[in-house]
């Protein structure tokens, strides 16, 4: 080790350097911390800097079914995909703690019984995150707490959307049509 380095080490270890946050010419303890020790919560910053309308616009919702026609007695599987197009994490405020729901012919979760709480909630996405949810409709409609009716043959619209006002107008809603046959 060079002599200059040994001398500096002795001075530093001896406490000869005076550190004081109040004195302008003295080194400060705060300034001695490396920059890497500081962290920034990207989620908080992006929520503060990106307006809500832009966060809503950055998310897309899509619903897909493996086929468009199903015979009687068969469940209808579907996949709901949501994706954040922004390169930063975002949080979307929602009108319910259940951030999204699916519908059959406009009936939430094929149930005429209201089970969605009315409190606010949120849905969080990492940068560029894609969320996928798999659900099945058993071709039944709930008409009371303990009573279900089978869906008759015909065409049904299965849709999904975020729990926000005007989800369809904001592009946060998607739908597809399936056909249920008699046999």
Automatic annotation (TrEMBL):
Span of domain DUF7974: 48-180
Renumbered to this chain, region (Disordered) spans: 14-40
- What is the recorded name of this protein? DUF7974 domain-containing protein
């Amino acid at each position: 080790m060079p002599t200059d380095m040994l001398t500096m080490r002795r001075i530093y270890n001896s406490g000869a350097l005076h550190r004081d946050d109040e004195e302008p010419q003295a080194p400060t303890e705060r300034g001695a911390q490396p920059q890497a020790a500081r962290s920034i919560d990207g989620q908080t910053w992006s929520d503060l800097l990106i307006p809500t309308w832009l966060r809503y616009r950055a998310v897309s919702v899509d619903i897909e079914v493996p086929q468009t026609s199903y015979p009687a007695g068969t469940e209808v599987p579907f996949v709901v995909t949501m994706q954040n197009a922004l390169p930063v994490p975002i949080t979307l405020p929602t009108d319910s703690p259940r951030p999204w729901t699916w519908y059959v012919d406009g009936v939430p979760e094929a149930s005429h019984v209201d089970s969605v709480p009315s409190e606010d909630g949120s849905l969080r996405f990492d940068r560029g995150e894609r969320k996928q949810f798999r659900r099945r409709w058993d071709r039944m409609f709930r008409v009371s707490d303990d009573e279900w009716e089978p869906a008759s043959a015909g065409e049904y619209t299965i849709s999904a959307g975020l729990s926000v006002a005007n989800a369809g107008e904001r592009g946060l809603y998607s739908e597809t049509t399936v056909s249920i046959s008699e046999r």
